[in-house]
Amino acid sequence: MSQMRCENCGWVGSDADLGTHREHRGEFWGAPAWETWSVCPCCGSEEYGEAYECEDCGAWGGLEPGYDKCPACAARAEAEEEMTDG
């Protein structure tokens, strides 16, 4: 299972925990037609994506593939690098 993160409220959880939104779209051959999609269980937003684990602190966040640190750890690492260079 993947860890997911809501872009709206910051919720982090497994993809199995996502909520479901269902909307009536009319009829198809006399039967009701529904459209169903996944949403954030906290705020109902459709804006979510895969979360990645920070290599340093283990926190789950909205990291992009290829980046190994969360924003806090990346900022700390950058500050430490500036201190050693200067």
Share of residues in helices? 10-25%
Rg on CA atoms, Å: 19 Å
Classify the secondary structure makeup into a structural class: alpha+beta
Number of continuous helical runs:
1
Shape annotation: rod-shaped
**Main β sheet profile:** 3 strands, antiparallel
Cα(first) to Cα(last) distance is 44 Å
Percentage of residues in DSSP E strands: 35-45%
Q: SSE order in H/E notation?
A: EEEEEEEH
Unreliable residue stretches: none
Main sheet: strand order: 2-1-5
Mean pLDDT over all positions: 85
Task: Count the beta strands.
Answer: 7
Written account of the structure:
The chain has 86 residues and is an alpha+beta fold. It has one helix at 71-85; strands at residues 3-6, 12-14, 19-28, 31-39, 48-50, 52-53, 60-61. It is rod-shaped and about 75 Å long. The mean pLDDT is 85.
Quick recap:
The chain is α+β, with helices and mostly antiparallel strands. It has one helix at 71-85; strands at residues 3-6, 12-14, 19-28, 31-39, 48-50, 52-53, 60-61. The strands form 3 sheets. A 3-stranded antiparallel beta sheet has the order 2-1-5, with no helix packed on it.
Give the helix/strand layout.
Blueprint: E1 3-6, E2 12-14, E3 19-28, E4 31-39, E5 48-50, E6 52-53, E7 60-61, H1 71-85
Antiparallel strand pairs: 1-2, 1-5, 3-4, 6-7
Which terms summarize this structure?
two-stranded antiparallel sheet; 86 residues; alpha+beta; 3-stranded antiparallel beta sheet; 17% helix
